[in-house]
């Protein structure tokens, strides 16, 4: 099996949803909201994909300025293709697209939290999340 990696190869919303379902990341993404999923695909400005022939088997989907910060929003590998180094390669290829000062930033899924430290990430406890519908307190 020869996995091919592509930078910013167009994918369909259906391909993205299918991969998320087959990677278990779909459990933490709004896959039932097609418009949201379509927006996630169309508004990403850096996507590295992994392919086995014409089957999408992995993705690193990011939003970045390419110079200072790159938020790796989704890292997903099809369950049948996990433990083959595809996820690490997707991250390395993402990093290659970035400028020398650009940080790769992500929020780990609970089950994947221990994955990132051994491959070079440092943990940061200063991440904050404002959930949809929560109002910023101005007074």
From TrEMBL:
Keywords: Transferase. Residues 3-139 form the N-acetyltransferase domain. One of its GO terms (molecular function) is acyltransferase activity, transferring groups other than amino-acyl groups. PANTHER family: FAMILY N-ACETYLTRANSFERASE, PUTATIVE (AFU_ORTHOLOGUE AFUA_6G03350)-RELATED. This is Putative acetyltransferase. The lineage of its organism: Bacteria, Pseudomonadati, Pseudomonadota, Gammaproteobacteria, Oceanospirillales.
